[in-house]
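Appendix C reproduces, verbatim, an entry submitted by the partner laboratory led by Prof. M.T., so that reviewers can inspect both the input and the predicted structure.
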Amino acid sequence: MYVPPVFRTDEDCAWTFVRERAFGAVVAIQGGTPVASHVPFLATEAVDGRRLAFHVARANPLHEVLAASPRALVMVSGPDGYISPDWYDSPGQVPTWNYVSVHMTGTARVLPPDSALGHVEALSARFEARLAPKRSWTTAKMSKAQRDRMLAAIVPVEISVESVEGQWKLGQHKTAADQERVLRMLDWRGDWSSLALAEMMRARAARPAHPRRADPMPEAASERQTQ
């Protein structure tokens, strides 16, 4: 992924975002043609590395593609939104788009059928925990026949993550006054994506500057290089 230095985020920040977002697009290649599916996943980290665990429907050809050609790209996107030049205090601005994105590459392996139950339990427990104090759903609430049908209909897959690249294109190369104006306009729009984007812009502004971050690019040049 092309990432201008001013928008590059550190790997730990990008991985934390991946763990929380837990949804993305998995892309594999079959005969030169990209094959992709959008999936929720469980992101874990241990001494032997980072992993993403997900499943697809047995009818989905992605698991067969990954079994034959295991190299994969996973793209995880956050909130995004159009930024009008009229929203800035500074003159001579151009239209742009603010967004958050993480790309990961790695090697996939199709897991054996007897791992499907544990995978479903772990994945659902991760998301059910977000609904507390609701009592968590588990497969124990299903009949054995229903559970067996569900497990037979899915294929669990695990990706060993080898690289993580994060881009936080949030207008941080703009003046403080320009950034504040953009935040006010995103708040004014009030839709989910605008509010979420504003929240990430504020969170990024509150973080200490990354020690490896390059100096901000000149305004006009930076906009030409951010797409």
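The longest strand covers residues 154-169. Additional entries are available on request from the coordinating office.
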